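Dissemination and training. As part of the outreach component of the grant, students in the summer workshop were shown how a complex can be specified as a set of sequence lines and then modelled as a single object. The example used during the hands-on session is reproduced here so that future cohorts can follow it. Participants entered these lines:
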Amino acid sequence: MTHLPLDFAHLLAGSLVLLSFLMIYQDRLSALLDVFAAHAVALSASVAWQAHLQQAPHLYLTALIALLFKALIIPMALSRIVQRLRIHREVETVVGTAPTMLAGIGLAALSILLMMRLTAGADPLAREDLAFALTVVLLGLLMMVTRRNAVSQVVGFMSLENGLILAAAGAKGMPLVVEISVAFSILIAFIVIGVFLFRIRERFDTVDVGALDEVRGERG
Amino acid sequence: MTPLALILAIPAAAAALAALLPGYRLTARLNVAAAGAAFLAALALLTGPRPAPTALFLADDLNIVFIVLNSFVGFTAAAFSAGYIAHEIETGRLTPATLRFYHAMYQVMMFGMNLALVTNNIGLMWVAVELATLSTVLMVGLYRTPEALEAAWKYFILGSVGIALALFGTILVYMAAQPALGEGTPAMVWTNLLAHAAAFDPGLLNLAFVFLLLGYGTKVGLAPLHAWLPDAHAEGPTPISAVLSGLLLNVALYAVLRFKMLMAANPATLPAGPLMAAMGLASLIFAALMLYRRRDIKRLFAYSSIEHMGIITFAFGMGGPLANFAGLLHMVMHSLTKSAIFYSVGQIAQSRGTQAIAALRGLSVSNPRLAWAFALGVLAIAGLPPFGTFLSEFLLVTSTFARQPALALLLALGLLLAFGALLLRLTQVLFGEPETTPAPVRASSLPVWAHMALVALAGLHLPGALVAWFQAAARLLG
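and obtained this result:
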């Protein structure tokens, strides 16, 4: 009985990792955005469960922010951009799906081994949550380096930030300042990205970052 | 208001005003005035009594070095920028509407950097560094050319990844501190952390430092995480290149130093110094080699910034009173010299209409006065006497030689390589027949000469009070 709350927290954090893996091999932008929305929902549930366990009401607010901004508003806005730019077809990946998945599994193993060994003294809830969070962060990074499309890089970045929020929520009693600022910075980041996407579109008629490589400063 | 509050309140108020006021001439003046007032507040902080650390703010010998340097270069860059942008408006590269945005962002950036320097809360420090990063991303993309967008995008992506890793490290520090300090804000206050660091879990602290070094190290521009830096320097407006090199890199390094001090306070952790020294040395040698292949003048000096940040990181990594002193001195000298070089490069590029080194030759014929300022700056950054950079590099090499002769050889090799590359490019730019007729320059040369005078003075004679102050800061660093 005493294990149940812990198990449930791990289930939620684990589902976040699973969804990160799902994101890695989505090759269509619209599907990718759907998985990202699910990722944000899982994050929100996980943070809410942490709020319940730690009896920290301010974490409910973080969960609500995650649900509203990251599960609803941002995916909707991004899919509008994707529709308007007519790039919902295929996602170009730099590396194939199989090597990416293998790299992802390697990263997950690495982070779990690392965290479990280093945090032997810490509170069990926090420590396993932290291992999952690091996995999500690393998978987000992996996604950012294997994608060339600006929109999927942004999604990779946001999934990385989801991992950070998971870690922050798992750290018992971490001050609210940080959580709100994280959520806020994502919002700012989104605005920045929105501006950039708009301008990239304006100039190149594509959001493929590969096209930008052709205009690198020192060629010619 | 106390000087500490003014350092934050002035840029914040100026940012709001600059966003509201019409007309770029007015906001340019506001920008200079606000930066000047912030510099005066920083001087007041330096000379006045030190406020006791609170949960939010902290002022000690170490961060006051950074604050005074930051607000001084921020002020001269604003003064340079006022003339620079007038030229950009005339040539149509910028519009008055973008300039309003530019000035507001400039003050937001100053606010972010000052906040990162004075805060005592590691979470707030992270927020402030991120704020400064985002505002510079927007300024790098200001020209909206394909190159500028590429640079801003790359900067944004790499900067965010770095900043994300830094946040993870910050969370880990909190988790390491929480058993000893209890839940909530006290476990994020740096002075508390330092006092109780010996009781923290060393494993967590090690892992945290690796993340923090990689995360903030990306912003310092340490190899191999430097990829954003040359593009961001080359494609943004030149005053921004000057503040990026002269200030933002230092602020990120300051964050690394604060965490290094935490590591040093816990005897069971890995020594943080050798990690930093290795990264610094690698950056120095890598950047020195890369200098030889540059064809764009702003990129050349961007790589030179990587090289010098490598030297400074190496110095702090070596630690000890002498190396820390050399590191601090070199940081100040590098900021002053590098921003002066960027000011003159900005004038040269505006006068000749290009940034390509090959097309700039014959500078001593076409613009003799600019050529003098530029040549002195390059000689100083290459580490020649009588400039202050020579003094700090000499101190560093000799103090390293006394402790680790092999590392001192590598350090000297890197310095010589960079020296050769810079002299090669300098002669290429100075001599020969100019290809184009120069256009008149609007931006003032005063900031360049003011910086160069300070660097030369420091090389000839360091005032005793300054030495005592830097020694106190070096002792804090351990």
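The two ends of chain B are 33 Å apart (CA to CA). Students were then asked to discuss how this feature might be tested experimentally.
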